[in-house]
Each structure stands twice: as structure tokens, then as C-alpha cells.
Amino acid sequence: MFLAATLVALLLLVPGNAGRPAEASVAAGSFVSVSVPALKIEAGERVVGFDFEVTSGRIAQIRDAPIGWNISVSNDPSWNTTIHASVIVAAAALDGSFFKDFVVLEKQASGGSAFELKGKIIVSTDFTRTRTIPVGNKDLKIRSINGRE
Q1: CA nearest to 117, candidates 138, 93, 100
Q2: For 92-123, what is each residue's pLDDT tens digit?
Q3: Cβ–Cβ < 8 Å for 124, 48
């Protein structure tokens, strides 16, 4: 029993990578920042939700996760990932400026599918009725942030 406890204590003292994310995948892909520069929001509308799907990429970072929102990220090992976000209270609804450099994605370094990002932004004036704005690659500004794109 003493020997087992001693071994466990020594293993805890030895520096290593246990509990840390694997860094090999970080070096493999290129990182991009995503904006929606020309979001068409009408007068009085506020953003109350959004959904995006990434093909051949992963959500690496949400730049400024707003208070009063539920945000769910699914970084599936297939490199087909999703992000779903919805407002919890009306006071936390956003304006379109939130979507400037709002997310950092890592493109998959290799694979059979092309990198793609598409989704929708949900807006409302009265928090009862909503309007959905489809968003695709043509609506996005995607810029490299590590010079490897």
C-alpha cells in the first residue's frame, strides 16, 4: 500500500502533459478570424441567437462570449463542428457589431472536405417574432491570424 501511494505521489510531481490539450493539432492547421461585416439588421432589431456549422474546421475561440447567453460548441472529432447560441434575457440581446472578429476557427490541415462556414443569425424587435438571416461564405470576412492560410 505504501509503495502504491509513493508511486502516485511521484507521478503527480513529474511534469508532463496530463490534463493538457494535445498541441500537435494546433500546429497542424491554420487559424482564421471570422466577421460578418455587412449584416443586414433592420431598425429596432437585435440579435437573439445564431447557429453556425463548420466543415473541415473547429471552433477554437469565441472572442467575447456575452453575459446572458447560452452558447454551445460541439467540436466533433470529424472536424464538422457547430456552435449554437441564444439569448437568455432580452436585455442581453446584441447589435450587429458583435460579429466583428467574433470567432476564431482552426481549419483542418488535411482531409477530403473543403473548409466551409455557414449558418444563420436570428434577430427580433419584440422577442416574440423572429427573423432569420442566412449567412454563408460570401457574407463572411475570413482572415488569417497566423500567416499560414
Answers
A1: 138
A2: 999 999 999 999 999 987 767 889 999 999 99
A3: yes
pLDDT in tens, 70-90: 999 999 999 999 999 999 999
User: What does residue 97 show for φ and ψ, rounded to 5 degrees?
Assistant: -65, -20
Rounded to two decimals, the pTM is 0.76
Which domains, from first to last, does the chain contain? 28-144 (2.60.40)
Taking CA atoms, 2 is separated from 7, 13, 95, in Å, by 9, 17, 61
Lay out the sheet containing 57-62: strands in order across: 57-62, 103-107, 31-35, 141-144
Region for 104 from its dihedrals, namely left if φ exceeds 0, alpha if ψ lies in -120 to 50, beta otherwise: beta
Average pLDDT score over the chain:
82
Find how far residue 17's CA is from the centre of its chain: 25
Strands 116-124 and 131-135: antiparallel
